[in-house]
Target: VOC family protein
Amino acid sequence: MAKLRHIALAVPDPHKAAKFYSEVFDLTIVEPTHSPIADGVYLTDGTICLALLNYKTDEAAGLERGKDWIGTHHFGFWCDDLEAQRKTIEDNGGTFFMDLPHDKKSLYYEMKFRDLDGVVFDISEGGWVGARK
Model:
């Protein structure tokens, strides 16, 4: 059975983004990458690899988006304490975006934020359908 173990985000400054995600979610910065198609930084939580990449050419990034396109749609972090995590995010420059669903007592309640580059991510205490903490 395949398991999700890698997420890549296109960002304008991989080192700035790595600092944000490592401080906000205690991810470990593993190593930088310098390939013919992108420069970037790899981080991990011990299970998932988060690649923060700055593509060098439109072709490398995909012509439909181009090298200046930033982001993915969104991704989520399962956390133990929403309010403590919210404070850490905001203390590091992240901004609150929205709640989903609006009923905070829902099992799958999540808070959405934007990182320093505007990329959307979720935090949840209840997780997501099919996910395990």
About this structure: The longest strand covers residues 28-34. Strands lie at 6-10, 28-34, 38-44, 49-55, 74-78, 95-100, 110-114, 120-124. The longest helix spans residues 14-25.
